[in-house]
Every structure is written in C-alpha cells, then in structure tokens.
TrEMBL record:
It comes from Desulfosporosinus orientis (strain ATCC 19365 / DSM 765 / NCIMB 8382 / VKM B-1628 / Singapore I) (Desulfotomaculum orientis). Keywords: ATP-binding, Nucleotide-binding, Transport. One of its GO terms (cellular component) is plasma membrane. Coiled coil: none annotated. Gene3D superfamilies: P-loop containing nucleotide triphosphate hydrolases. InterPro entries: AAA+_ATPase (IPR003593), ABC_AA/LPS_Transport (IPR051120), ABC_transporter-like_ATP-bd (IPR003439), BCA_ABC_TP_C (IPR032823), P-loop_NTPase (IPR027417). This is ABC-type branched-chain amino acid transport systems, ATPase component.
Amino acid sequence: MILETIGVCKRFGGLKAVNEVSLQVEEGQIYGLIGPNGAGKTTLLNTIAGVHPPEAGKVFFKGQDITGLRADKICHIGMARTFQIVHSFPNMSVLENVMVGSVFGSRRPVDKPAKKAAEMLNFVEFPLSHDTLAGNLNTIQLKRLELARALATNCKLLLLDEVAAGLTPGELIDLTILIRKIRDNGTSIIMVEHLMKLIMDVCDKIAVLCFGEKIAEGTPQETIENQKVLEAYLGTKYVL
Ligand SMILES: Nc1ncnc2c1ncn2[C@@H]1O[C@H](COP(=O)(O)OP(=O)(O)OP(=O)(O)O)[C@@H](O)[C@H]1O
C-alpha cells in the first residue's frame, strides 16, 4: 500500500471539514476523490501532504507514519502535489521552473538538475522551447509545467487537485493520456476532481466525500450507482 489514512480529522473553528476519513491507496493505483463543493476534498489532500496537520487520525506513506510531518519533509520522502491554480515562477524559464523541483526534491546535491528537468519536460510532452518564460504560458502549458516540476522531485505518489479545471475537451483528452502515462511510469496518483468524465476514464477506485465524511468508495461504476452518492449530488427529492 502506498498511502493509508486512518480516521483523519481536520476542523476549521467549529466546522468539521474532514471527519474521520480512512482511505487505502494501493501502489500503482489512480485513486479519485470526489464530492460536492465544500465536501472537504482539498482539505483532505492538504492533511495528507502536510499542509494542515490532522487533529486526529494517522497518515501512513509507504508504511511510514507521516502524521504531522511538514510538507517539505513529505516531499523529500516521495510525495508531491499540484494545485488547482498553478503557481509558477513567471520570470523564470520553463526549464528553471522545473529545475526547482529537481533540486528541491532531492535531499542531496543533484548531479545534473537541468538534465533531469529537461527529461521531465520531454516526458510531459511540453510543446514549447524550454527557454520560454513561464509568465507567457497558457493554462494547459502551465499544467504540463507543473506536472513536470512535481515529477522532477522523484515522487512515488502524486496528488492532483482539480488538474482538469479550465481545459478544453481536446486538451482534456491529452491530459487523460498523460495521467495514465504518469501512472504507467511508476507514480501512484490521488486526484481531486469535479470532472466526472476524467474520473470515470482514469480512476481505478473512487472515494466520495460529503460534509467531511466518506460516504462511499468503490470502482467508478459502483460509485456512480450508489444511492448515497446520488443523494449527495442531487438531493433526496430527485432520487427515487
Ligand atoms: N483555511 C480554511 N479556513 C476556514 N475554512 C476552510 C478553510 N479551508 C477550507 N475551509 C472550509 O472547509 C470546508 C471544506 O473545504 P474544501 O476546500 O476542503 O472542500 P472541497 O471539497 O475541496 O470543495 P471544492 O470542490 O469547492 O473545492 C468548506 O466548508 C470550506 O469553506
């Protein structure tokens, strides 16, 4: 198993944003986290990645207890994440942006960070010159840059937060292919996503959150047929 959470809780004041959530993600899996707006998906991702330490519960990565470990330490042991809104260094080139990942991801001085960065840009099929300034990229180019930067850290688990947001249907097909390629290259993935087409196409397993609680888990098909899930999305009035 690459990641396990046991009874993870995170509150904001009186709000239980994540309430006793337990998940098990197997190595090589693409695991989807879905749920209505405000369900706690990003907060759960943040408790896994070390942004918010959970108030209760445990997080294990490759069998190691990482509960409460800082985000930078978690990155060093092999977990990287991307954000719904891509944060790049706009005045640096694409290559330099990805080098940040290759230098930061290693605990020791990296031999050839530029070589590693170029390899990752080629892996994500970045379409422009690596000298292009990051500030000049469009949405899909920024997403490829961010994926290359995360992969340059040598991560074994990649957390994707709404990676498909803002893409055209054509770009979405390319992204679907790239997500599978990342997994086939040995990186397990947990993805928070609203776009059901992408979830149904790539995920091996899905968990559904609603008001901070996990209400269902299973294959994509099992999950979309689950009565509790239909109620969470549509309301009881519309579900027979
Ligand atoms: N830093 C914060 N401070 C206070 N409340 C927060 C904070 N972050 C999230 N919340 C609240 O916690 C709840 C869960 O938010 P979260 O962003 O995790 O949900 P989500 O499922 O990712 O939603 P969305 O799909 O809309 O992005 C929401 O009610 C949100 O307003």
